[in-house]
Amino acid sequence: xxxxxxxxxxxxxxxxxxxxxxxxxxxxxxxxxxxxxxxxxxxxxxxxxxxxxxxxxxxxxxxxxxxxxxxxxxxxxxxxxxxxxxxxxxxxxxxxxxxxxxxxxxxxxxxxxxxxxxxxxxxxxxxxxxxxxxxxxxxxxxxxxxxx
Length: 148
Fold this sequence. Notes:
148 residues; 2 domains; five-stranded antiparallel sheet
């Protein structure tokens, strides 16, 4: 019964995260593009833990790029590379950071130009989260009802 409830909670979290990701990705389809100038680069920790993953690319670091851009004669500054931060090994985060040129394409919301990113997203990951959360929720309900 405890396992069924845990599966339901995790599945609900996946559904909510997927819904937010799909909504943001759809909103990004209407974003406009302008040129920006990178003013600072650094590798930062996510969550304050300084651990490196043992396998794959995972870790608690991400590249942080600060950039200036202008929309309608108004200057803005942002440090958002992506809507969803992904933890990387420090060495991979440093490689990604070095790959950013001095001049970048900035994707911004025309209705709120202060909201800007260097990467646009598609709703694919959000759809996977929704589908996985739905399957997990169904599985959790079956386990829960089977234990009653």
